[in-house]
Task: structure prediction
Amino acid sequence: MLGVIIATHGEFGNVLLSTLNMILGDFEGVLSVTLSSEDSRETFMEKMEKGIQEVDPGGKGTLVLVDMLGGTPFNIAVQLAQTRKVEVVTGVNLPMLIKVSSHREETDLKFLAGEVQKATRESIVTSMELFKKQEQT
Result:
């Protein structure tokens, strides 16, 4: 089973994971790693390395879901992806986590990352789009 890390600024990742657990129950191999205002880049790197070891002790791969492109969690995760079996997807949200939880048995990390990205894009709609779809049916 692939490991999953939710890497965010502040407590956002903890809240997302708690909400996911409320909806679907607890999951093994999923961890929130938070960047606090006191963390240096090196400290956060250490947190991420420890997190990867915890969620993926067998070395099958880790999907890292970060809150935003270009932020410290993203930059550290991308740096780790250069030397480890890590894929990074930006814009973590609840639909993304639900998709991940239903595909945890995937053994292809790149495939899982692509599926998560696709599902997330499809889950973002405006109310006008929904109204138009309803009118067409």
